[in-house]
Amino acid sequence: MILGRRKFLATATAAAIAGSLPLAARSVMHPRFKAVAFDAFPILDPRPVFALAEKLFPGHGAELSNAWRGRQFEYQWLRALSAQYADFWHVTEDALVFAAKQLQLPLSADQRTQLMQAYLELKAWPEVAPALHALKDAGVRLAFLSNMTARMLQAGIKNSGLEGIFEYVLSTDRIKTYKPDPRAYRMALDAFRLDRGEILFASFAGWDTAGAKAFGYPTFWVNRLNAPAEELGAFADASGHDLAELATFVTAPR
């Protein structure tokens, strides 16, 4: 029977993770950390949103996506600093409207709805499921810790078939602020009831890596974009291209 591409990649990744560990480590694992708290995008693949932007605005999709993404995070931070909170869904929509205006692209109501809806249709990157299962099998507790709303995170979990994997789905919307506010990072401490050093924070963005490290978490930067480290005075303890590398780092014998 021919496996689908996603299933084949997931199976191959699981085998690679298992095969990379010595036999003794596989039988009795002592992970480096008791828990891992993930930002959304090491888990969820945002590329379909940007592909849709190109489909709706041929030749301008990349430009729109870059302007949208940049303003999306600026609006989070500006609203948090000015105590004018709006949740991730709303700042994302506001950022889209601004980016389209800035680039003088005619954004219809239907296009706006399609692009926003795409955030509720995100699925996990191909290697994520086997990597998460490897961590869970090793006794590592897992959680989301994201600026996304709970609705967006739960949609991604359902779309990806990851129900039951995460012990906690922590959205900063619950406390009406955004990372890198230290109160946001504290959510994982309060949920897991562990010490900082026992929780690995897995980030997608360099600024989030720096924020979590400054808070006191060990950090693993899932640097899927091969971006340079931010010059914010705090750097990841380890980094890799995907979750397979993170799983190997966490479960490797010490």
Low-pLDDT runs of 5+ residues are 1-16, 18-28
Which percent bin holds the helix content? 40-55%
Name the helix and strand elements from N-terminus to C-terminus, one letter apiece.
HHEEHHHHEHEHEHEHEEH
Number of domains: 2
CATH H-tier superfamily of the largest domain: HAD superfamily/HAD-like
Describe this protein's structure.
The protein is globular. Helix 3 runs antiparallel to helix 6 (109-117). The chain folds into two domains: 5-45 and 122-251, HAD superfamily/HAD-like (Rossmann fold), CATH 3.40.50.1000; 47-120, Putative phosphatase, domain 2 (DNA polymerase, domain 1, Orthogonal Bundle). The strands form two sheets. A six-stranded parallel beta sheet has the order 5-4-1-6-7-8, sandwiched between helices. It has a two-stranded antiparallel sheet with strand order 2-3. The model is unreliable at 1-16 and 18-28 (pLDDT under 50). It is 50% helix and 12% strand. It has 254 residues and is α/β, with parallel strands linked by helices.
